[in-house]
Amino acid sequence: VESSIPEPQRDAWKKHSAQGFKTKEEFQDETVRHIETSLARSLFNCDELAAYSGASLAFRDRLIIEWNKTQQRQTFAGQKRVYYFSLEFLMGRALDNAMLNVGLKDVARDGLSELGFRIEDVISQEHDAALGNGGLGRLAACFLDSMATMNYPAWGYALRYKYGIFKQEIVDGYQVEIPDYWLDFNPWEFPRHDITVDIQFYGSVNKHQNEDGKTLSVWEGGEIVQAVAYDAPIPGYETSTTNNLRLWSSKASSGEFDFQKFNAGEYEGSVADQQRAETISAVLYPNDNLDRGKELRLKQQYFWCAASLFDIVRRFKKTKKPWSAFPDQVAIQLNDTHPTLAIVELQRILIDLEGLEWDDAWHIVVNTFGYTNHTVMPEALEKWSVPLLQHLLPRHLLIIYDINMKFLQMVEKQFPKDRDLLGRVSIIEESQPKMVRMAFLATIGSHKVNGVAELHSDLVKTTILKDFVKIYGPDKFTNVTNGITPRRWLHQANPRLSELIASKVGSYEFLKDLTLLNKLEHYVDDKDFKKEWQDIKYANKVRLAQHIMNTTGVKVNPKALFDIQVKRIHEYKRQQLNILGVIHRYLTIKAMSAEERKKLAPRVSIFGGKAAPGYWMAKTIIHLVCSVGEVVNNDKDVGDLLKVIYIEDYNVSKAEIITPASDISEHISTAGTEASGTSNMKFVLNGGLIIGTCDGANIEITREIGENNIFLFGNLAEDVEDLRHAHTYGKFQLDEDLKKVFDAIKGGLFGDAGHFSALCNSIVDHGDYYLVSDDFNSYVKTHALVDEAYKDQDEWVSKCITSVSRMGFFSSDRCIQEYADMIWNVEPLPPKP
Ligand code: GPV
Q: Is pLDDT of 770 > 70?
């Protein structure tokens, strides 16, 4: 408090308080001032990048002013805050979003235009903030947007990676990874060099007696790394609430940059120490739905959790409230198990540093945390080896042992006769080496556990956490079906459709209450409306065709049916099923007469997505898609009937171009493997239909929009286990049509067949774990239905409009409402009108 400006001087201060621009004139003032001073450029030296930088700094100033007010207001109100812990925030670009959310895009468009720039060109200068892999990271970004829009006092906590997800180049049909150094110029972050936390690693645990004769465990020695805060403002839509995303960057602590070494002539050694500290926040791990157990990743997790908790505890202590009030002030949501160490760290702070009794501390911990699970696939469930934890975080391992012991004692009391149960639910897996099961620890340390779609939440309860349902009862486990923000994924990505919708439903209010889309249903038979709808879709397809032309040199016909699958490349997501289906289509076309070909609807099969750098099968799938494209796109017999495209470097800003341009998109995971999926929602919201399996949120989308408006196929989740069992016991029968496809590949139709043998063998010889063969026939037949349906454009458009009108449920605003009511118990704090 001693850093406040004294009362008598405050009027002078307030007179000069920053306001932020409102009018076009003021926007231009600010933009030009930033270009001339912050960037030291002139009107003789201002390209689009400089214009982007100047405009962004002008908007950042505005956001920071609102940020300051929001934070003061929230602190003063003293109500509970939400802290969303996520190792990934896949934010994409910020300028367009900031312009739309503060309602000044038109002002900026006019202002920039008078200065000689087209707003679209300026916006597209921005480098995506790509601190995430896929759906999990994008969900976190949508949640930030919704929490700010709904005026919840909420912060995100994450790492400030120097390198985001790699950039993908396709070279000769293979994926090549390029490091994504994105911090060269990032106007959106705000360094807080005064907000730092020292984080300890390694060392040992020793017993000490305090004055009262109590034995304390003291964690001593090891090394210290410093966490420095960087803040990014998160504006809500049509509200002045501006929340915070705090990113931690690592550097050597001031004591660590060893001047002794320096004086002893070991300058290089001390610089090396510095760099070693900085590696903690250097790079985002590029794996999606896969756990690799690397030491540096564990260091990232602890570094981020410890810094964030220190920050939260520091803030709580300023309120002077008793520790028992902590869960009334703080809700922490764990985005998957990556931040599970936060549970252990809070327990450590409370018992070792603050002197609370174990049980009192544990009560606070459990009431503070909620855990969101995003997968039931075994290879993606995190485990950390006990020796590694022992080495890196010796005190935390002891606390994990104590948590486990008390938990197992409780279970034993409850189920005295069930000896196997204790081994099954123990946090420690008795393997060689022993492993800590993070999903179990997260479940035990949280008051609520949720899955991300109904089917998935049921699977959580019947598979990986079955025993825990028996122990805690069903109420600890719940579902919050995922959603997406309509601001970015409709209004920003598809402004013309958003405008058309607004003209029919009366206002842009649907962007804040997406259920208002249901008013569109009155217009399903409105001829003029349908015509406009089709025109917009066509324009969006032309835009994508242009992008494809510019980046691949392949000309595609925007009148063809655009069939799109863009997402991370993964065997469970089954891009292999898609490309094998495309080959089947190609072979069918080749076998047709000219007459038959005339009846066929032209198609463009579009793929996009990154493969984890070490995931060979995923890379092989990319190579197969590219190889098929080479052959098909140059086959004169085929012409416009089929084109196969790989869009390089799929990311958030590309998704904003791709999503509005689909006629049909593919969400075809093996039933029971895709926890929810969120791109399915984006495509339907933008007036595309989907072909999909009965998996994840597809099921709920079907329930909302009606089964006549979706193309479902394939085996059900409940049958998957039996089918796999049948494969392993010799009853595997390769689908007839699929065999022809494999014969074509083996015959060298798409280049050296050796490249694809492992991919084919995984299906033919190695048990077809993802049921590609079992679902092939049903997939191909369903695509034939898609072809038929597309011929009746009038009916097709009706299906699209009906679907959009029923998508209200899938707004991330609805998710946040559910989290707030069922899990966090927090209230919004709207700004004063
Ligand atoms: I675990 N998800 C992801 O993107 N990365 C991961 O490491 C894990 C899960 C995804 C799921 O695969 C999607 O089904 C889901 O929609 C998304 O998380 C958000 O919940």
A: yes
- pLDDT tops 90 at residue 266: no
Pocket test for ligand 1, best of 84, 90, 131, 136 (most atoms within 8 A of CB): 136
Residue 274's pLDDT is what?
87
Calculate what percentage of the chain has a pLDDT beyond 70.
98
Mean per-residue pLDDT over the chain, rounded: 96
pTM of the prediction?
A: 0.98
ipTM > 0.85 for the complex: yes
- Ligand 1, residue 380: give the atom nearest the CA: 1
CA-CA distance, 677 to 615, in Å (whole number)? 21
Q: In this structure, what token pair is assigned to residue 363? A: 């009560």
Indicate whether residue 66 lines ligand 1 (CB < 6 A): no
288 lines ligand 1 (CB under 6 A): yes
**R_g (Cα) of the chain, nearest Å:** 28
Q: Give the end-to-end CA distance of the chain in Å, rounded to a whole number.
A: 29
Is residue 398 predicted with pLDDT exceeding 70? yes
Q: How many residues does the chain have?
A: 833
- Cβ partners under 8 Å of residue 14, min gap 6: none
CA of 375 to the centre of ligand 1 (A): 7
Question: 473-486, pLDDT tens digit by residue?
Answer: 999 999 999 999 99
Identify the residue with better confidence: 262 or 777.
777
Q: How far is the CA of 680 from the centre of ligand 1 (A)?
A: 13
Contact 645, 604 (CB under 8 A): yes
Residue 567 and residue 137 in contact, taking contact as beta carbons nearer than 8 Å: no
| Residue closest to 293 by CA, chosen among 427, 201, 385 | 385
Sequence-distant (6+) residues with CB within 8 A of 802 are: 521, 524, 705, 706, 709
Local structure of residue 518 (DSSP, 8 states)? G
Burial 257-272 (b: 16+ CB within 10 A, else e): beeebeeeeeeeebee
Element holding 807 (H helix, E strand): none
- Spell out the domains of the chain, with CATH numbers in brackets: 1-77+105-127 (no CATH), 79-93+129-382+439-481 (3.40.50.2000), 486-810 (3.40.50.2000)
Tell me, in angstroms, the distance from the centre of ligand 1 to residue 69's CA.
35
In sequence order, the 6+-apart residues with CB closer than 8 A to the CB of 218 are 205, 206, 207, 208, 352
What atom of ligand 1 comes closest to residue 139's alpha carbon? 19
Q: What is the mean pLDDT of residues 438-459?
A: 99
Report the DSSP pairing between strands 242-252 and 154-159: parallel
